[in-house]
Amino acid sequence: QVQLVESGGGLVQPGGSLRLSCVASGSMFSFNAMGWYRQAPGKQRELVAAVTNIGSTNYADSVKARFIISRGVAKNTVYLQMDSLQPEDTAVYYCHSVRSGVSYWGQGTQVTVSS
Cβ of 1: how many Cβ atoms within 10 Å? Predict the structure, then answer.
């Protein structure tokens, strides 16, 4: 049984920063990839950033140079450092992981960027 639990969301002013964390519980093996998706009201869910088990990263064009994804030493954690946040970044952020062709999703954490 694998569950992903996100934390770190909240309310921040434009230009501020947040760091999201995701921990995979009950994992006996490393994941092929972990990442973050987000979904804003009225929009489709989109990939924000992902990192593979060999350290390769991929970012959406809208967050490049502002967000950094990284994995913890234990390899069952993933972080998303978000800098220079803007109102258009407001969304529910979901942790996602893939192992042996199976996808796992967290429940999501709300990020709101507003003055």
Answer: 5
Q: 9: closest CA among 95, 74, 75, 97? A: 95
- Looking up tokens 């709300």, which residue turns up? 110
Cα separation of 44 and 10, whole Å?
Answer: 21
DSSP secondary structure string for all residues of 68-103? EEEE-TTSSEEEEEE-S--GGG-EEEEEEEEETTEE
Query: What is the DSSP pairing of strand 57-59 with strand 46-52?
Result: antiparallel
Per-residue pLDDT of the chain (115 residues; tens, 9 = 90+): 789 999 999 999 999 999 999 998 876 667 889 999 999 999 999 999 999 988 899 999 999 999 999 998 777 899 999 999 999 999 999 999 998 889 999 999 999 999 9
Please work out, in degrees rounded to the nearest 5, the angle formed at the alpha carbon of residue 103 by the alpha carbons of 102 and 109: 160
The answer to whether 93 touches 109, Cβ cutoff 8 Å, is yes
